[in-house]
Design a protein that fits this description.
The chain has 101 residues and is α+β, with helices and mostly antiparallel strands. The protein folds into 2 domains: 27 residues; 68 residues, no CATH class. The protein has 4 helices and 4 strands. Strands 3-1-2-4 form a 4-stranded mixed β-sheet. The longest helix has 24 residues.
Length: 101
């Protein structure tokens, strides 16, 4: 009886662990960080503008996945971030701020 219970418990755990690891391992930070491998990020605004001269340069908070435009409160000021091209950021799945900061 105990063996049967242990087997059932192991089967349930095996069925739930991949879902649990997905739920906990792919939070906002992980999702935000995933697309960055394909998108160029720059330390300076000038370097980003040289990369995309016809696009708007934005500051991407790499931890939250939200970008801020020049003149906004958090432009160039978040702890984790980089200058990127707005079109590339949008194509990579990042989004603009919803509160205008």
């Amino acid at each position: 009886m105990l063996r049967r219970f242990a087997l059932v418990a192991m089967l349930i755990a095996a069925a739930l662990l991949p879902q649990a690891s997905f739920a906990f391992g792919h939070g906002a930070e992980a999702v935000a960080a995933m697309p960055s491998a394909q998108m160029p990020m720059f330390d300076t605004e000038a370097a980003a503008q040289a990369h995309c001269p016809t696009d708007v340069v934005v500051w991407l908070n790499t931890k939250s996945g939200i970008w801020h435009e020049k003149g906004m409160r958090w432009y160039g000021r978040t702890k984790h971030g980089a200058y990127v091209c707005r079109k590339e950021a949008a194509a990579a799945g990042y989004r603009d701020t919803r509160n205008g900061q």
